[in-house]
User: Fold these one by one.
Assistant:
Number 1:
Amino acid sequence: MGFLKDLPIVSEYVLPALDIALLAFLLFKMYELLEETRAIQLLRGAVILALIYALAWFLRLSTLLWILELIAPGIFIGVAIVFQPELRSIFIRIGQRELFSGKTGQKPFRVEAVLNAALVLSASKRGALVVFVRKVGLKNIVDTGTRINAELSSSLILTIFDHDGPLHDGAIVIQGGRISAAGCFLPLSDQPDIRGSFGTRHRAALGIAEETDAVVLAVSEETGALSLAYDGNMFYDLEEPELRRRLHEMLGVGLPEAVESGVV
């Protein structure tokens, strides 16, 4: 293949075009990865600082350049500390080869089965945690629970989260339309500004949403509130239509025809 480089048209047009195309693809994938976490704020801040530095260099603002060069190491260290959860999430996804994978690949989620069970649990104020795996694998989380590998159904979810059940305190993990495991332990969020009213269940939902791209449905045992956690954020006490819309949207599953037409 080396002889191709000697061809004038290849060295002058094809290779530069290939170089630009590969660079654009890598930049797009990195931006897509950042956009799935709160680290997109980091990217925007870096762009603003770069523009300020370029303006200072162009206008020969020596004092501003000196200050920027002086505080640059401190900014780098501060960013690494403040955005540690987001950076950890990015490296986890890269390590699991999610950078070049497509957005689809999972079997369709049976969202309505989960929603029906969640509404029953909410009405009876029985707490629950349901984790939907998306691109980032959760084998380490599945290993903390009891493997089930069962077909997803509302009745099974209700049975798992029964008050007298041995698995009701943990989370169930759903992947590929099946319940992979139940009674799983999730990492707790360490956000300092998290609502004081959030208990362990909501902190766990937010914790896994900070570290991975999973979508987590939480049912409050105290109030029966239905909440979703994803992309490092908690959306608390959602009404049924909004909950259904967000869940279908985040999992890439279209709304049922009856819902879209307003029948239900």
Note: The first helix runs from residue 8 to 35.
Number 2:
Amino acid sequence: MATGSANSINRRTWRRPTAFRNRYTKWAVYGAVLALVVWSLASLQITPGRFLSGLGYGYELIESMLPPETGNEYTLRLFDRMIETIAMAMVATVAGIAISLPVAFGAAGNLSPRPIYYLSRGVISATRAIDGLIVAIIAVIALGFGPLAGIVAISFKTIGFFSKLFAEDLEDIDMGGVEAVRTTGASRFQTLVYGVVPQVVPRFTGLAVYRWDINIRSSTIVGIVGAGGLGVLLQRAYQRYEYDYVAAILIAIIAVVLVAEFVSAVVRRRVQ
């Protein structure tokens, strides 16, 4: 009897979503979405013939990649760039997080005055608005080719990601513990160290490892515009039509990313 009553209550309380209560409105929305998709395909000149011919070219490309290049000279160069990629990610993660910490504390509305809060949120929005490859191109123009430009680009993107998520964690802390430390006569800095930091250390560690994982992936890409790492080799191999070497580079990128993903997963499980 109780189950029947619960089912009847659920049937009485369910309501059709307001946007689709009128069937004409529903079909009008579906028609508008379909028209937008068709218009987008037409404007981009995506045709079935072009797609099928692309499949044929793709098959030829994959065939030219096999077997991957495994010569000693190529392997040593690949290993050197792989080490450079990992080093770029490590340095960029540490530098980006170091810059992100004051920004994150400033962007926490429960810890900062309004002027600092809005300024920090503006910094987060600005760093999130610009794509990493655009930043890498600007860094290459300003600093020249090499890993330094890649470190600057990856650090820049780390600020927007890490600051935003860590600021949200800071806003979710228990303010009762913070007030308890403050009532003992602690200074603002002591309040942060003893009242705030212990509550967010596990989350900070998890975010740092997660961002390092992302930076490993990013460091394999920014090299395409000359910012160091495996991307430099990938771009040069494409330009020289050395597709067998391209395959070897792609395998190396996948290996680096998988190892980083495994390490990241292990560390996050331990800190949670």
Note: The chain is about 80% helix and 0% strand.
Number 3:
Amino acid sequence: MLDSKAVRTKIFADGADLDVISRFARDPRIKGFTTNPTLMRKAGVADYAGFARDVLRLIPDRPISFEVFSDDFNEMVDQATEIASWGRNVYVKIPVTNTSGEFSGRVIRQLSGSGVQLNVTAILTAEQVRDVAKCLAGDTASFVSVFAGRIADTGRDPIPVIKQALDLLRPLPRAELIWASPRELLNVIQASETGCHVITATAEILAKLPLIGKDLTEYSLETVKMFYQDALAAGYQFRLKRKIASAKP
């Protein structure tokens, strides 16, 4: 029987809705938070720094990741330095490459070496993890985000990549692997079973946490009742063209 208490992987809430963030800030199961420019734009965030200050007031004591938005490596360093100054619990998201596909290694090495806590993001291959690991300072805390959900979207199993990534990061005790972009609650269990340090999850997935270990026969009956009640609520009806003969004993 599955048990949510047996999940060893730390769960980070992923999003940019302040009301949702505020709710999860009161949830002891949530050990950290992440966001990105796409989620912020979707949530209607107009003031990047102002939004970050609001989030940090809600979350003063757990890791929170904010992303740079420049495509120029020098500007990335400047933005990351500014973002890192917002709080001791801040991790700065650096994309593994710029939009030209050039590896961000120089940026990662410079920032991590100067003590900036990084979350290197948008990683999809073990080779990228290997390159990033070579640039991270061993004495600076960091996250390495492998987008397992996007790997799965291509029809590939992300678990072998996650396992390789864990091996590659083992020499860096302050570097933690994030299973990013999960698609379903099962990914939380998979992340825990592989030994992945962290998984990020949206509010939709987090809402399903109470389902871990639920009795399947009970769940089946609830599903039947849901279909029946929805049919009644919709007022569906039709006349049978012929009577159905009753079953003989």
Note: The two ends are 39 Å apart (CA to CA).
